Prior knowledge:
By secondary structure, the chain is an alpha+beta fold. The chain has helices at about 5-10, 40-45, 50-60, 115-120, 125-135, 150-160, 160-165, 170-175, 195, 225-230, 245-265, 285-320, 320-325, 395-400, 415-420, 425-435, 445-450, 455-465; strands at about 15, 20, 35, 65-75, 80-90, 95, 105-115, 210-220, 235-245, 280, 330-335, 335-345, 345-355, 355, 375-380, 390-395, 405, 435-440, 470-484. The strands form four sheets. Strands 7, 8, 9, 11, 15, 16, 18 and 19 form an eight-stranded mixed beta sheet that branches. A seven-stranded mixed beta sheet has the order 1-2-3-4-5-13-12, with helices on both faces. Strand 12 and strand 13 (about 345-355) form a beta hairpin. Helix 6 (about 150-160) packs across helix 12. The longest helix has about 35 residues, at about 285-320.
Amino acid sequence: MTPDLAPITAALTRVDDLVWEIPAAARPDMRVPARVFADAELIDAIRDDLSLWQLANVATLPGITGAAIAMPDIHQGYGFPVGTVAATVLPDGVISPGGVGYDINCGVRLLALDMDRRELGDAVAPLMAELARAVPAGTGRGGRVPLTADRLRAVLRNGAPEAVRMGLGRDDDLACTESGGRLGEGDPDAVSERAAARGRDQLGTLGSGNHFLELQHVTRITDRDAARAYGLRDGQVTVLIHTGSRGVGHQVCTDHVRLMDARLPAWGIDLPDRQLACAPASSPEGRAYLAAMACAANFAWANRQAIAHRVREAVAHVLGPRHADGVRQVYDVAHNVAKREEHGGAEVLVHRKGATRAFGPARAAELPPAYRHVGQPVFIPGSMGTASWVLAGADGSLDVSFGTACHGAGRRLSRGAARRRVTGAALRRELESRGIVVRCPTGAGLAEEAPFAYKDVDRVVDVVARAGIARTVARLEPLGVLKG
């Protein structure tokens, strides 16, 4: 049954040029306002799906503080819309798996090569071919890192550091990974046998959907100081890796949504949408989910760590060992995660679903030493054939969004609608006519991710920058893309 959107749409008011709000008084069950960062054109697109209704639902969660906040890339999701930030006050504020998402710690890792586009020359196609061979992509594709039961438990508990111990990467990668690539709450005993089994052959794999590995180059620097700190320069070749926890995270979410939904009456929690199933963070069910979620997040960081190692191997094979040694990690950020943080003098649980941490210099202790004076790197991928952006987190984000920025351009069309508009073959020809090398095993998978299916990434980034959440640093454009 489709909900009545009219009351929510009618209640949406413009607070200033970039902030729109549904006041808490719009519905008797809302505890806080629902707030959206967007310009006039983006808000029109946001009105087209159920995301505003879902955002108002998020504002009803027990323990929520401040506001239910949406980034300009917001679109309809499971329970929470994708592109949402919500903080609940600990210890008894709730944790909602729908506020993290099925792909726990879907995130982005940026690698910088020691060469520019001109030096790379005509090696784009052979490098993309080797990357496609080295990094399995697609639904259910197994990797080349089979895990014993004991090693899988170690990965779930220890994340990226465990992958480095396995010979997949370097210690300096960990220093430039959010949380060092590990959430300490992870307890493999909280992960079901089914969830663990779904990860046994998935380490080092890309997956499907909007996950990708993209070979890019820097086409514009907008903040020289931050670019220098991040080690980025004009023309530099980069690799952007976007993937998450594969089947592990999906199963963890499935397991705990089902469990929490059955327990809602016992806690006296009444929700406008059962997809918001939640539990007090201090309850046994809440603690169990947080322990399992941390394991899935750790698996995702280890997964991107393994893929980064394969990128270095591909560079060594095509360009030589010297260039492989020069592949440096800029940063790795999580998108779908809930983390205990202090904001406004209170300990809160920040749900970031399709949103990325964007700490500025005021949270320097939580950033790599080289980045503390400019803020944390923030990566905003576009879509195939469009640009991606590197930004620097700003202290203003702490005041308006619990230190959070958007995570991408945001879908404008469903996957089915995109497939009805273009074939994979036609899209491949169009991209390759622009010099973008495409590696994707299925035409349907390619069509689903057509550039026109997404919002304008430059407009989304402009809203984030003008709102004082993050500063633009560098614009990256694609040379080749690998999709599942």
